[in-house]
Protein 1
Amino acid sequence: MHRHSRAACEHRRVMRSGFVLMMGLILALSACGFHLRGSRPMKLQATKIFVEVRGARQIAAEIKRQLEINEVPTVAQPNDAEAILSLTNERFDRRVLSVDPRTGKWREFELGYEVDLAISKPDGEDLVKRDTLQISRDHSFDETAVVSKFEEEQQLREEMMRDAAETILRRLETIEAH
C-alpha cells in the first residue's frame, strides 16, 4: 500500500510539472505577440463598414463573420458607413499540375481562388483601388481515396476563404478614416 501511494505522489508531481511547463509556454508565446489564426484583435480606423456584395457571397459571409468576432459593426446602408468594402467576381478554379504517365489521369492540381475588391468612402473616394486578390494551394489526387480527397479539397477551399478574408481585413486596417 505504501508503494501505491508513492506512485500516486510521483504521478501528481509529474502532472504538476507538466502543468507548470504548459503555463510557462503559454505565457512565453503570448509575450512574444503570438496569436492563433483569426484571434488577433483588429485595429480598424473605420468603425462602421458596409459590405457591398456582387457575385462574392462566400467571402462576404466570412468577412462579416470575422468582423462580428472582432466587434466591428457592419451597417445596412452605404451612407451610414465610414468605409465601403466592395466584393465582386468571386471564383474558384482548378489547374492540372501533374499527370500520371501510365494512366494519363491527373495526379496533382492547383486550386485557385480570386475575388475583386475595392474600398471607398461613401462619397466615392477610393481608399483602396479595385484589385484582384488571388490565393492558391496545391492538392494531390488519389483515385483510390476519392471521398477523402473531395473532403480535403473542401477544407482547402474553406482555408483559402479564411485566408482571403484575413488579407482583406488587413487591408481594411491599413486605411485611415476621415
Protein 2
Amino acid sequence: MGPGRFATPSFKRMRQSSHQVVGLLTQPDRTGRGHHHHVNPMKELAVAHGVPVWQPDNVNLPESREALRTLDADVCVVAAYGQILSAELLAIPRLGFYNIHASILPKYRGAAPIQFAIFHGETETGVSIFRIEPKLDAGPVLGISTLKIDPKETAGDLEVRLAALAPELLMRILDDLEHDRGTPIPQDPAAVTKAPRLKKTDGLIDWSETNRQIDRRVFAMQPWPKPVTYLHQPGHRGIRLLLLDVEPVDIQTSAQPGEVISVEQGTILVAATNGAVELRTVQPDGKRPMSAADFLNGHSIRVGDRFDSTP
C-alpha cells in the first residue's frame, strides 16, 4: 500500500525478491489545476508488471476489505499511504500490516517526520519498520536503519535518500517473518514525539524565531509547503519570495526581527530574534531561482526595509 516516490524503491525491491507481490492498493487518480493528470508512479509500475491495482477512496470500506481478502496475502507492507487503517482491515493478512516510517521511532510519529527532523535540528534520522496497530505509529518495531542528515539538505532530498535506505531493511524483515524469526520491540511511550501533517502556513518565515530556527525552516519546508516571506518597502506592494538557501549569521544587532540590516557586496542580511540570516538564493513569484546578488540587481533594497510573514 503506497502512492508515491517514498514507496517506489521498496515496491521495486519486493518485486525482485523471492516474495510474491500479489496486489497494490494506492490512492485514486487525481486531476490538478487545468485538468492535468497526476501520474501515480506506483500504479504505473504495478500495471507494467501485471500486478493487480485497487484505488479505493476509503480503504476501510467493506468492498475494500473484501478486495484485500481475495488476495489471500500473508503480509501487507505500507509506505506513506495517507489513510488511517481500521482494526477490521488490519486483521485480514495472516501475519499483519507493516509500515515503513521515515524516522527513528518513537521519535516523530505522524505524517511529516522528515520535515520535523530537519526543523528540530536532528543530525541523524532513518527508517523504522513496525507492525501497525490501531494507535497511530505506535506498534512494535522490527528494525531500524539510520543515516546522517546533511546540513543543507531539504526535506525532498532527504526523502529520496530515506526511500533508498528502506528496501534492504524491508527484505530482512520479510525474510524474518517468513521464517518466524525476529523479535518486535515495543516503543518507549516516554520517548514519543509527534510530527503532525503540515499546513501551508507552516512555510511562512517567522522572523521572530532564532536565526537557526529560520535556517532549519527554510530547508524543512522544501518542496512543500515552501518557505515564504514578503519584502515590504515604503511606497511599494509587498513582494512574495521563496527562500531556497540561507545561512545563520551570529552578530550583534539592535534591528527588529525581519529588518534588513545590510545589502553590501551582493548580500542581503536580515535580522532575526538573535543575530541575523543571510539570504543566499531566493525566488520571486513567477521568476526563476536567483542569487541574492542577482535579486539586488533588479530590486533596490535598502537598510531598514523589512521582511514579514504577511503580504
Protein 3
Amino acid sequence: MALNIVRHDITKIRADAIVNSTNEYFRVGGLGVDASIHYAAGPRLEEALRGIGHCPVGSAVITESFNIPTCRYIIHAVTPLYTDGRQGEEALLRGCYRKVLDLAEEHGCRSVAIPLLSAGAYGYPLEEAYRIAASTVRDWMSRADDSDLDITLVLYEKGAVELGKALEEEVRDYITDSYTEGQREALKEHYDYPTAFRANRRPSRAEAPAPVPQEEQMAMSVCWEAGDEVDYADVDLSFAEMCEWWCRKKGLKKGQFFSASNISRATFSNIKLHPDRAPKKNTVLACAVGLKLDIDQARDLLMRAGMTFSRHYPTDRLVEDCIRDGCWDIDEINFRLYEMDLMVLGYSRAE
C-alpha cells in the first residue's frame, strides 16, 4: 500500500476507481474535476446519479465508470463548502476521504485516484486542503494494515502543484499548464460555459423572495431604462442589483462579469435570491474588481453589502491599492493574495 502524488488529468489515470468532487444533488456547476469527469464519462453518468438523487455532505456514493476506459468505478464525494473553518468543514472533509477509501476497499479496488477535495470552487484554503488530504489518507493507511490499496493524490491546477512540490519530496508531472488550459477551453465549449451553469434548481415557494411592489418595480425600470443618465450614487438598489446595473452601464454581458470576477453564475443567483443575507466579503471584493470600479464606486458597492474597506485587513489593503493603481486583473490579484497566504477572491459556487 502506497501514497503517490502526481499532477495529472484524473480521467486519464489508470486505477480501479477515480474520485469526483460533487454536491448533494450531483449537479455540475463549474469547470473543475466534476465537469471533467462528466465530460469523459458521458450522459449515462448523469442518469445514474439522478437515480441516486441525493447524498449528504461528508459522505460518498459509487457508480460505474461508463465511457471512461481507464477505471472501473467513479466514487462521488460530497465535499463541504468552506465558510470560515468554524462550521465543521474539516470534520466533513476528513469524513469524505475516509468514506472514499472505505468504498474503494468494499468494492475490491486495488488502486484509487483522488483529487484535492474542496479546493478551488469550494473555497477551501489550498494549504489547509492539502494538509487535510495528506494527513487523512496517511492516517487511514496506518490503520488499514492488511490493505493493498494504492492511493494516488491527483493535483491539477498550477498552485496546488507548486504547493505539493514544496511540501513533498516528489510530485511527478504527467501534464503541463498548456494541457490544463486546453482542457478548460474544451469544457467551456462543451458546456457552453458560463451560460449553461445557471442556478441548479428552482427555489421553493418558501425560498422565493417576496414580490416587489409595483411602485418599486416602476422605480427600478426607470433606473434600467435611464442607463448612462443615472448616477450610481442616486440608484437605490441592493448589492446584486447594483452589480447588474454596472453590467448594463458598462455594456458587460453577465458571463464576462462572472469570468472577470472569478465567481459562478450559481453564486451570484443565490446572492440575488437572498438579499437579506450578507455575501462573503471576498465575493463582494471580487465583484468590484470584475466590474472595474474606481475606488469610490467600489466603496459604494461594498456599502450596499453592508461592508467597507478596512486598512486593518491585508486583503482589503491589497485590493484597495490594486483598484487605486488601475489593476483589475483578478488572476494577478489572486496571485498576490496567494503569495501572502490569504484567501483568493471569487471561486465560490454558492453563498
